[in-house]
Amino acid sequence: MTTNKRLAFLTQLVQSGKADAFAHYALAMEYKKEGNIPQAHEAFEQLHATFPEYLPQYLMAGQMHLDHQQVEMAKSWLSRGLALAQKVGDSKTAAEIEAALAQC
Predict the structure, then answer these.
(1) How far is it, in rounded angstroms, from Cα 62 to Cα 14?
(2) 12 and 44 both lie in a single domain
(3) Residues 39, 7 share a domain
């Protein structure tokens, strides 16, 4: 499936209201991969609003913002992710998020 077809499929799936957390995440990552940071941010925000316990979103959104010199936004995502990782006892993800926070 080409990127444009994948993006169209994921957009349609998310808009249908039947998407799980991973489909929302995949849509955000697809926008990120295409370099469409405003759309990726919006997709991450929608993912967060719908599935706040989906841990992978925090590191990826934080890194995306960090890569685009949006330090405060990166800190916000990474800090929330670190709190969740610690809450659920995911020390590997917590360490990855701490490393990303150290770059802020």
Answers:
(1) 22
(2) yes
(3) yes
Query: In angstroms, what CA-CA distances link 98 with 6, 39, 45?
Result: 32, 26, 21
Long-range contacts of 91-96 (CB under 8 A, 24+ apart): 93/55, 93/56, 93/59, 96/59
**pTM metric for this prediction:** 0.92
The Cα–Cα gap between 98 and 95 comes to: 5
Q: Secondary structure of the chain: what % helix, strand, coil (to 5)?
A: 80, 0, 20
If one counts the domains in the chain, the total is 2
Q: What is the pLDDT of residues 17-65, one digit of tens each?
A: 999 999 999 999 999 999 999 999 999 999 999 999 999 999 999 999 9
Question: Length of the chain, please?
Answer: 104
Half-sphere CA count of 13, side-chain side, radius 13 A: 18
Specify whether 73 is located in the same domain as 43: no
Note down the domain range covering 11: 1-53
Let me know whether 94 and 78 are in one domain: yes
Report residue 16: phi and psi, to 5°: -70, -20
